[in-house]
Each structure stands twice: as structure tokens, then as C-alpha cells.
UniProtKB/TrEMBL annotation:
It is found in: Cell membrane. This is Peptide ABC transporter permease. Its main location: membrane. Keywords: Cell membrane, Membrane, Transmembrane, Transmembrane helix, Transport. It is a multi-pass membrane protein. Residues 72-262 form the ABC transmembrane type-1 domain. It comes from Dactylosporangium siamense.
Amino acid sequence: MSTLTAVRLPSARLALSVLAVVTFLAVAGGTVAPHDPLLQDPDLALRGPSLIHPFGTDYLGRDVFSRLLAGTGTTVVAALESVGVGLALGVLPGLASLWLGRTVEWVLLRAVDAVMTLPFIVFAIAVTGILGNGLSQAMVAIGVLFAPLFFRVTRAAGLSLTRAHYVEAAELFGASRWRILRTHVWGKVVPTVAVTAAQATGGALLAVSSLTFLGIGVQPPAPTWGGVLASELGFLSQQPWAPVIPAALIMVAVAALNALADAIRPGGAA
């Protein structure tokens, strides 16, 4: 199934609609927020939903709806940053392992095996502890851990192409490795990498939310999806329904990315 055909599927259209909304909020969420996400009003603390505050207020009287809107940009950009690092560190080495000889292949495979043993959250916490508590540092750490995924997917997609007849013919006619990769290999690897990137972005959103939930990467009172969820969980006895809203937002965004990945996967949903 081609990508154009896949995006006509109802699941793909729904996923794209959700992601379009998330993208808009990532760009303009702070602008369209009805209230200042940092404005505190203790007199309005822990109020329920109303026309003025659709999702209620938190323990400092801040509007939860505005904080979620304003925090979308930080959360989404951080997730994309980690996926970008993973792509940069995984795709090119994955192709290089197929074309630069057995020594390079062995070194790269051993490096990937070593990185795959590192736990996501613990490694990110360790990196921020060494380099400073910044979201970029944490996302670089997460991106490094995504690199083996892109490495293996790219390598697997390109492995069957190294001995394809048209690739062998190009080699016989004297085409350089770079030209072969660019002309005959890259176009056939990209769809698989795109599917993996969509799925990895969903995982990155969960990682960002987990880290900010723990207070890593973003210092309060800056709003993030995970930070809002953490603040709501501290007052379950007063507002047992409140954590459902940021949790649902995270779940819907991740589900949309996974649905899109399933739709555009070669031979995916029909």
C-alpha cells in the first residue's frame, strides 16, 4: 500500500487530524491559552471545571487548561529533538555498516549492543545529573538510546538491497557507493525509517512526560504535560478526576502517532 493510499484510511485521517491539532498547539498553544499559565491565585486553588476554567485549577490556582496548552510546545519539541538525535546517530551508521567493510560493521554492532543495555530513564537522569538539569540534555540522552532502534531498522531494510541485481549492476558500471546509496538504496529505506520515526516519536512523548513528571529537564513553574500530571496527582483526595485530563492528552497523542505508523507501514492496515 502506498503512502498516499494509506493516508486515505479512516484511522490515518483521524490520526492526522489529532496530530494537526497537537502541532497547532505546539506552535500557538501559549498564544491561544485563555489565561496566563503561570498566574497564581490561591483563592481559586483546586477549583473544579467551569466556563472560565474548563479543566479546573491546580493547587496554586493556575488554570490547568492554559497550562496544558502552553506546555504542548515544550513537550512536542523535546520529543522531536530526541527522535532527531536518534535518526542522526542511527540511520547513517546503519547504512555504513553494510558498505564500509566487516571491521566497521563489527565495531558498530558492538556499540549498538552496548547502548541497548542502558535503561532509558536512568540514563537520562544520569546525563542531566552530569551535564545539568536541562530538557535538551535529557533529550540528547534519550536520542542516543533511540539510535540502536534506527540503526537496526535501517540495516535490516538495506541488507537485502546490497545484493540486489540492480545494485550489483551499478557497481559493475563503476558507480560510487555514495551514488548507489543515494539512487538505489535510500528511497527504499525511507518508508521503513518513517514508520519507525512515527513510533519513536510516540515513545519520546512518553519519555518526555515521564521525565518532566519527575521534575527532570524543566524547572517549575514552566508547564509541561508531565509536570501538570505530577501536580494533579498530589491532590487526588480533593480532585480524583484531575489527573485523567493530562494523562488522556498524552495517551491520545501517542495513540495517534502509533495509528499513523500502522497506516503508512508497507503492507500495513488495509
